[in-house]
Structure formats: structure tokens, C-alpha cells
Amino acid sequence: ALASTRLPAGHPRHAEALEALGRVLVDRGDYDAAIPVLRDAVQHRAEAGVETVEYAGALYELANANFYAGQYDVSDSLNRQVLALHQRLLGERHPSVADDLVNLGAGQFERANYGDAERYYRQALDITQGHFGRDHFRTASNLTMLGRSLVMQKRFDEATAALDQALAIRERVYGPVHPAVASTVNELGSIALQRERYGEAEAAYRRMLGIYRSVYRDGHYLIGIAQSNLASVYMARGENAEAESIFRDAIATYERTLAPGHTNTAIARIKLGRTLLRQAKYAEAEHQSRAGYEILKPQLNPSASWLVSARADLAKAYDALKRPDEAARVRAESATVAAKPK
Asked: Least CB-packed of 14, 149, 182, 294 within 10 Å?
């Protein structure tokens, strides 16, 4: 307010204030409010010239806000502009270039293109590690993102090595209770879950949930991720009533903190649908699975695991509900996707 009333039009302090406000709104999870603020910051920076580091920085913040809001195509487009600017202005191996590559990898990751995400993350890690060294918190961040992509490709030994290194760095730098630590613990929990080490997975997700609640109380979508992952442990153990309750908590958290139609909410609905299916609650299972599937279908690669599992669950629900035509349609869709060359 002071910048807009007391400084001349186009003064850089106005753009700085808008970017700072936008970052705060993003950190609070208020992405719908952050995006117009950051668009305004980009416009202010553009008035001074679009071939500047400051303009690239404003675009970077706007790309982040769109990513967290689930607007992956918009975010990707902005990140590609930022990458090109940083490469021209700062050079091919500047840390800011690594940040841009991480963001592009994250966009591929959210679309379930895990091999493409890995390639971006490895390019970023090469730059970051070369600039800061192997024992730096920014290297730990890159290692965690790389580990995530390896987990999703079921390359668990490689993922564990990267994540253990990242966790050691982050605990040393931040202490045991910090969102960065929780992020790495989450990925290690995922490995334990997929290796059917359920006690280890539960401990990891409970630690993650405790960290996020201590930092954000109940005001951030990351709490929903921890809840959903913890519920997945109960589902894997066959404790479906307990899993159902926690998935419902996760969905409620997402609905408070994310835009409608976000992929996180969709995935939690698909998981909830499966727990309901296993409890023979077929009508509600169909409703939840269908709701999640319809959100994800236009956003993900058709062969993404979440879509594959949702189609399988829907077919079972339709069979149980005596709706053979719908079951046949879903199975035909699954067969068409499976027949396409990878």
C-alpha cells in the first residue's frame, strides 16, 4: 500500500512488495489469492524490461503459484520462459538454472512422467552439486526430488541411497522438526510401504504428520498428504475401516487448502474408493473412484498408475452393482490404453 501511494509509477519497490506478498500467500497455501498478486508483480517488472533477472524472478514466483494450484500447463509454460531467460542472463550452469530444471521436473512428475522428471532432476543435481558441493541443503533438496522419481519407478535401492544422503544433510541443517525433513521422510516411508515394511512406513508417515502439524497446524495441504499416506499403510494391512476414516480426513484437509479439482484430492478419492470397495460399500466406492478418475483423466498420461487402478476399481464396483454395460465400457477403455505402445 505504501509503495503504490508514495512511490512513482514503475518504481521497483512496488514489484518487490508484490512478490513478497505473493510468496507469503503461496506459503500459506492461498494460491488463488497469490496468482493475481504475482501476475501484477510480473507486469510491473515487464515495464522495466523483460530481459532482466528481476523479470525472470517474478515469472518464477508466478510459475510456482500456478504449480501449487494444480495449473501444470501454465506453470510449465512460465518455467520454460524462466529457464531460457536464466540461461541467457546467468549462464547454463547457474544455480537458478538448476531451480528451473527442478520445477520442470516437478511438472512432469505430477503428470506421472517419471522418467522425464528424473532427467530434469539429474540435470539440476549436476549443476547444484557442482556449485554448492555434496553436503549442502540445496543438494539435499535436489536429491529428495530425484529420490521421489526413482521411488515411482520402483528403483528402491537407488532411491534409498539418494534419500538417506538428503535426510542426513537436512537433519544437520534444519534439525529434526522441519518441513524439509518431513519431505525426505515421506519418500523413505513410500519405499518402506512398497516393500511391505508396514511398521517402518507407519513410523515415517506419523513423523511426517507430526512435523507438518507442528509447523502448519491445520492450515496446509501437506498435512493432507501425510494423512493420505498414513491411511495407505492401514489399507495395505487390510485395516480398511481405519484407512477410510483417515482418507476422509485427508480429503477434508485438501478441500480446505487446495483449489477444487486438484490432483491430490483426486488421488485421495481414488484411494478412499478402494477402501470402500473392499468393505463392500459399492455405491459409495463407485462415486469416489469416479470422482477421482474424472479429475485426473484430463491431466495425466492415460497409463498412469492412478488411472489404471481407478479403472480397475470402477469395473469391480459396476460388476457388484449389476451395471454390466458400464463395467464393459471401463474394461474396454483399459484395454485400449494397455494396447497403445509405451
From this structure: 294
Burial (0-12, 13-18, 19+ Cβ within 10 Å), 322? exposed
| Contact indicator for 235, 271 with CB cutoff of 8 Å | yes
**Average pLDDT of every residue of the chain:** 94
Lookup: cell for 330? 471401463
Q: Which sign, positive or negative, has the C-alpha torsion 101, 229, 334, 341?
A: positive
- Alpha carbons 283 and 287: distance in angstroms, whole number: 6
Return d(Cα 116, Cα 118) in angstroms, integer.
Answer: 5
Q: What is the CA radius of gyration of the chain?
A: 21
User: Could you give the CA distance from residue 42 to residue 36 in angstroms, rounded to a whole number?
Assistant: 10
For residue 28, the SS3 value is coil
Distances (CA, A) of 97 to 31, 135, 157, 173: 24, 20, 28, 23
pLDDT digits (tens, 9 = 90+) for 281-326: 999 999 999 999 999 998 887 888 889 999 999 999 999 999 999 9
Contact predicate 234/242, CB 8 Å: yes
| Residue 192 CA, distance from chain mean position | 20
The share of the chain scoring above pLDDT 70, in percent, equals: 99
pLDDT, one tens digit per residue, over 67-110 is 998 899 999 999 999 999 999 999 999 999 999 999 999 999 98
151 and 117 Cβ atoms separated by less than 8 Å: no
Give the mean model confidence (pLDDT) for residues 242-256: 96
Q: Is the pLDDT reported for residue 9 higher than 80?
A: no
Q: Is there a contact between 45 and 55 (Cβ–Cβ < 8 Å)? A: yes
Contact present, 95 and 138 (Cβ < 8 Å): yes
